[in-house]
Amino acid sequence: MGCGELMLKKICLITLALWILPICATNGLCEDYQQVAGLIDLRTTLSDGAHDLEFLIQLAKERGFKVLFVNDHDRMVMEYGLFPFRNIVKKKVERPSVNQMGAERYLDAIKDISLKYPDMLVIPGVESAPFYYWTGSPFNEGLTAHNWERHILVMGLEKAEDYTNLPVLHNGFSTAYTAGRIPIVLLFISVAVIGLFVFRWKKTYRILGVLLFVLGIAFAIDVDSFSSSPYDPYHGDQGIGPYQHLIDYVNERGGITFWNHPETRSGVGEKPPIRVDTPPYPEVLERSRGYTGFATLYGDRITVTEPGREWDRLLKEYCIGQRSRPVWGISTADYHREGGAGEKLGNFPTVFLVKEFTKDAI
Q: Does the CA dihedral 17-22-27-28 come out positive or negative?
């Protein structure tokens, strides 16, 4: 988004606020409400941000903000395994994240800094990339990770285990999906048991017995019975399923979800030794259900907010009863570093209209 276009949108939003607020005041609709300026989608040194929590709080206070939503990455992992033992013979690359350091430590850090600055509200959350899938091969320089940049902001989860068990790829040990994989594991174990019998049956069949036993055990392990997601990155595009699964998980635990930067142009390019390919994804707004809202203002061009486009259609669906909740719009910062790529803390604010300055009210 160019500076001129961004400034025009800001002027329009301010003008709208100046028009609405006097009407509210005249009709008594704004009695006892206060406006609280906040920032959503901030990274810290706990994942891939350049500044620690205290630096962000102090800078936000200087610039008149009172609410900070911290959305460090839940898990930043990408891995590729070779067929047929993709979960055994694989390369894994991981960067710092909430669940790598430990969700409990993450939440404690935010609690501790909140006690030091009681005049500020610091609300924990994460930015999640629930799913991606591979095409191409590592042997011909065509290996491509698709939809890696499809991100969902998760907020409002209070328990460490809620973050630890987020249903996203490569999020660590989980028994949530083990039961569904038991039949195939038992099948491979049966092959291994047959191999033992063959090995003991006749000496001439011992090589076959060893082969059956080794393959049976290897395939049983490769099933990955304790993975953190019911999906894997080797079976192509899985549609809205992985994302809806995350949204439902968060809703069940009392949290809220926002699709982030649905029309970003930064998701396609070369990241040697692989390519990444996440084209703009506004279609997910209509294909998914139960989420709280999406980023309507951020550092890129956006069209879904224009008349007759996706946001209008979503709100119409709510008005006629096809959706159980309205879809809200927020501004997201995707803030990593002061001055980096023209970023400045406060460029993308969200203003909350609340009766009291509390976390629950926000």
A: positive
pTM (2 d.p.): 0.90
CA separation (Å) from 29 to 19, 24, 26, 111, 354? 14, 5, 8, 34, 12
User: What are the structural domain ranges in the chain?
Assistant: 36-178+226-354
State yes or no: cis peptide before 84, omega within 30 of 0. Answer: yes
Cα–Cα distance for residue pair 61/208, rounded to 1 Å: 71
CATH class of segment(s) 36-178+226-354: alpha beta
Flag whether pLDDT at 287 surpasses 70: yes
* Tokens found for residue 302: 């956006």
Give the span between the Cα atoms of 66 and 117, in whole angstroms.
Answer: 10
Structure tokens at 227: 């993975």
- Cα 319 from Cα 324, distance rounded (Å): 9
43 in Cβ contact with 71 (< 8 Å): yes
Summarised one tens digit per residue, pLDDT across range 322-343 is 999 999 999 998 899 998 777 8
